[in-house]
């Protein structure tokens, strides 16, 4: 069927490295650079911000969720590594889906990856603006209120202050700043104007750096990674001396369900390690170094996350951590404000590095899609001097920068997580469909170990159903009155049973199956509203495919 036409690995490799006009990307990245890029993408807003809300729900047990999420990402990372070794082409999960599932699924994944990279960067830019503004206030520089937020957040803050004052509370400096800032905001067409100027400015600067070249980008990313890792290690070492083990009891105050409530926030801390795969055509030795860079960065970040989670929940009670800057908060509470200030600087640098890696990733995915005819040719053109996908980089900057001026970032976090998990499911499943290596094909330098899942997968699925038997039976008995979350749970169980049966019949490999199933499970724990937005996003993407990509596909035209 033409909707599922596949592109061969040899054809994908032949198209790589150039734009058809004699211009190619700059091959300079080593395994060290790739590891740094992975850390730059992963250690960002998650460790400095969202870890607080996750800890408030799960308590010290949130460290277990980091382990679970790391294992989930580890399965996916191994699958990414297999693909990166066999198909060393920019495009990440889009490219991998094209050679395994076919064109329609590749388009869907390419469209979903916009949620991870472009939409995800909106969240990061808004977070960066908050850190930067706090940093300025620490040195007594106050930007106008209307220049540092969006209308939705401004209205919420103003309403919250008015409600506090109505209870008789005396206005403090922060409350007065919100009131005065809200009332003094300029008017535009009868409405108060609020724009997050710092968020827009940092996106513009990062886009300019990504446009200039991979050499400049890699040097900047490496320097930022060294600094923020040094700060995190300092936080872990100093925090260790202030840990009160009584704060770790109870370890899971809200049970395992409470731990899982933080899945979106914790997974958001991990997204981005796959961004390494978008730089495949700029690696000196992609088949060897891409798998190593992915695994090294994931391992380092997991260790740091677990230690930070244990230190934070040991320094103060978990219930106090539902703040925007939990790392700075715990040290400020202990009177170590100088540490909090260093952390604020590091948070600004950390989120800057995440912005940079994601602004590198999105244009390279669009470049690959353009080569295949699914996007206009301008997206695939490489700058003759800077060796970057210039037009795609500019469009990415506009797509991220303009919304940061006006939109709130709360919903975007869940949308980013669901889009990323969806890509991980496809990559994990795609490994099972990779063509066998024959005499005419060169094997990659990383081979996913085969473990027969004929017995292991059914046993694990049965163990899962037994462990969640109460939830399963309640969802069945109350099916007609159940919420959408539990319907998703029942759907996951049904898929897991089918996969278990198929594993018995086909002797499927354990690692990719576990990667796909574990990512699916994390997906169902994301709030239903995010699923509705995700489906709406997918419908829009499919409409664009049938209007443009289906007719312009180079693979279809070649076959014709």
TrEMBL record:
The keyword Thylakoid does not apply. The lineage of its organism: Bacteria, Pseudomonadati, Bacteroidota, Chitinophagia, Chitinophagales. Residues 510-553 form the Cationic amino acid transporter C-terminal domain. PANTHER family: CATIONIC AMINO ACID TRANSPORTER 4 (PTHR43243:SF4), INNER MEMBRANE TRANSPORTER YGJI-RELATED (PTHR43243). It is a multi-pass membrane protein. Keywords: Membrane, Transmembrane, Transmembrane helix, Transport. One of its GO terms (molecular function) is amino acid transmembrane transporter activity. It comes from Phnomibacter ginsenosidimutans. This is Amino acid permease. Pfam families: AA_permease_2, AA_permease_C. The keyword rRNA-binding does not apply. The chain crosses the membrane at residues 34-56, 62-83, 104-128, 193-211, 223-243, 255-273, 294-318, 338-361, 390-409, 415-434, 446-467, 487-505, 510-526, 532-550. It is found in: Membrane. One of its GO terms (cellular component) is membrane. InterPro entries: AA/rel_permease1 (IPR002293), CAT_C (IPR029485).
